[in-house]
Predict the 3D structure of the following.
Amino acid sequence: MAEIRLEGLRKRYGQVEVVRGIDLHVPDGRFTVLVGPSGCGKTTTLRMIAGLVEPTAGRIFIGGRDVTHLEPKDRDVAMVFQNYALYPHLRVFDNIAFGLRARGVDRAEVRRVLEAADLLGLTELLDRRPGQLSGGQQQRVAIGRAIVREPAAFLVDEPLSNLDAKLRSDTRAELKRIQRELGATVVYVTHDQEEAMALADEIVVMREGRIEQRGTPAEVYARPATEFVGTFIGSPSMNVLPGRVEDGAFVWGPLRVEGVAAAPGAEVRLGVRPEDVRPAGSVPLERATAPFTARVEVVERLGPRAVLTLAVGGGNVRAVLGADEAEGLREGEERRFVIDRGAVHLFPAPADGSR
């Protein structure tokens, strides 16, 4: 496998610049996920790495080799798309082997196909046609076709979008296992932040053609660099409360958070994850805000946890509690809550400012 490096990568269509100077290093063997909303430039970036789109400016290196202007076939990468593009009249074996035969690989193709089939749990399905397979099995065939090429890197574009929720979860786990066993360099594109968190060694959050933040899933979740990252990563989404600084404290309605490092009178926005909105008395006093009263508007009981929508000071705040903590909670009643001060994030106004 090989490292991938992007230097000042840009793409413009007419007057519209969709990728705006991307600098990115993907180390050898790293599973890197580009994640962001539709139109953020993630798929265009992937297609430039693959050679399917010519960059307007910048350079692309794969394994230390400048491939910026090389044809896709000369870049030694394999792509897996959302649409599996299997040949319906060919057996699974022949679909997996197709790329090898097109490249004139000798009889070693049989060994490679059998090894890939074993890795992917497809050995018993090699004589079937794609129409006889489930969506998840078809996706594994498409992955197998990429694996047998033994490329320098895998480029993967929204491969799980066509699968139902359970199959998506199962296939996600398989992808992670396969990447680990192969030691593969992977650049993976998705709009699904949960998928990104589950798969990535490193997440690259994109917005409007730029990298908003990069880091491990834990880093990006715990220390979002901007309000956009804080609200995009995580489900339920981060609460963002618009308020101002008074006497060293953030104030919003009945909520007061002491120890805020911002100028007096400054308008700021406080970010707090739903799991850090806690029942009064459940956070050590040295870390808890003063208790505030909230009316329980909605209780969503989701097995081991419950998601609450709370009415506070003319707005809504979401909280996540364990199922046992939410036992006995009723919609319409008032309860006392606190926020863990050690887990809050301060963002400048307007909303798109960096921390």
